[in-house]
Amino acid sequence: MKVLKTGAAVATALVLALTATACGGGDKKDGASDAGTSGGGKSDKVVIGIKFDQPGLGLKNPDGTFSGFDVDVATYVAKELGYQPDKIEWKQAVSAERENLISNGDVKFVVASYTINDRRKEKVDFAGPYFLAHQDLLVRAGESGITKAEDLNKKKLCSVTGSTSAQNVKTKLAPEADLLQQGGYSECLTGLENKSVDALTTDNSILAGYAAQEKNKGKFKLVGLNLSNEPYGIGLKKGDKDLQTKINAALKKMVSDGSWDAAVKKNFGPADYKNEPAPQITEGS
Ligand code: GLU
């Protein structure tokens, strides 16, 4: 009898331990945060991937708050999905990690200067686009030798791993450039300032944000080229039609109620960035 009782107790303990493991934190799916309970996005909080080092788009401020156009778009969309701002958990999504974060279920969606393209659509789906940027170059203010993409051949150029900017340089813009790929554009900016690189290339929206920062005033200039179209989408798990439809509806509403324009003015105004009008939604249709 005693043996039987002990056996039952061990079995119960084992079941409890297994249940705890299965339900424990760290087993995040669909961007449901640890604070939440169930998966499938029904949790209390939502995890959203953004950039942390791109002023004007996605920036983690010294006081721990987040700002930028992508942050405002994400906040608007989250609200439409039923998550108030205090229910958002921001997660850094560097360029090369965006597809992984989405397919692993670490985030519910990504709003991070994320260009929609076929290569990425093999792994994730997008809603949008919600913004159209163009690839350009940032050089030191006194620099006059770089006025077009071909001038970059044999020059030291910096961009970011996993970005369309780096890919475009390698495949078409300046295959002979000495391309240094960093984890984030802020690292490239440091290189441009200390002259270890001659130019930084990525979307004009990002470059304008850096050039306008108080600490960078007068140091850098955009060359003013239109080297590509970069339609920004909101990345989400492949096949999640329901989420795609809901996010598209939120984006349309953001444009029609004037919030999109207000967010553009607020975030790009200080950089004097001439934005394109809100693009038509094309994903999912
Ligand atoms: N929009 C481009 C991309 O998605 C460049 C900016 C970035 O790396 O976030 O690759």
Protein traits:
single chain; 285 residues; alpha/beta; D-Maltodextrin-Binding Protein, domain 2; 2 domains; nine-stranded mixed sheet; three-stranded antiparallel sheet; 9 helices; 22% strand; globular; disordered N terminus; binds glutamic acid
The fraction of residues assigned to DSSP E strands is 15-25%
Tally of alpha and pi helices = 9
Low-confidence stretches: 1-28, 35-41
> Can you tell me the number of structural domains?
2
Distance between the termini: 67 Å
The number of distinct β-strands equals 12
Question: Could you report the average pLDDT, rounded to the nearest whole number?
Answer: 88
CATH architecture of the largest domain: 3-Layer(aba) Sandwich
Pattern of helices and strands: HEEEEHEHEHEEHEHEHEEHH
The class by helix and strand makeup works out as alpha/beta
CATH class of the largest domain: Alpha Beta
Q: Supply Rg.
A: 22 Å
Say what the CATH topology of the largest domain is: D-Maltodextrin-Binding Protein, domain 2
Give the overall shape, derived from the CA principal axes: globular
- State the helical fraction: 25-40%
Q: What ligand species are in this complex?
A: glutamic acid
The largest sheet, given as strand count, sense and whether it forms a barrel, is:
9 strands, mixed
CATH 4th-level superfamily of the largest domain: Periplasmic binding protein-like II
